Amino acid sequence: MNYLFLIPISISLGVVGLGAFLWSLHTNQYEDLEGAAVRILNPEAAPVSPVEKSNS
């Protein structure tokens, strides 16, 4: 069997992955890594669900 069609598929997947990584750098996804780790431990900072917002 001829598996040469896998080369362009793997290169395109690599380009898509690199593009997603560069997009995440551009949109500052890695700006505050320690803050997210602290916020997840704080129960008072839990997000409010839409149901709780409408009842209050």
Please give a structural write-up.
The structure is a single chain. This protein is mainly α. Helix content is 61%, strand content 0%. It contains 3 helices and no strands. The radius of gyration is 21 Å and the shape is elongated. The termini are far apart.
Furnish the topology, listing elements before pairings.
Layout: H1 6-26, H2 33-39, H3 50-55
Short description:
The chain has 56 residues and is mostly helical. It is built from three helices and no strands.
Helices, by number, come to: 3
**What is the number of E strands?**
0
Distance between the termini: 65 Å
Largest sheet: none
Low-confidence stretches: none
Shape: elongated
Helix-strand topology string: HHH
Quick tags:
single chain; 56 residues; mainly alpha
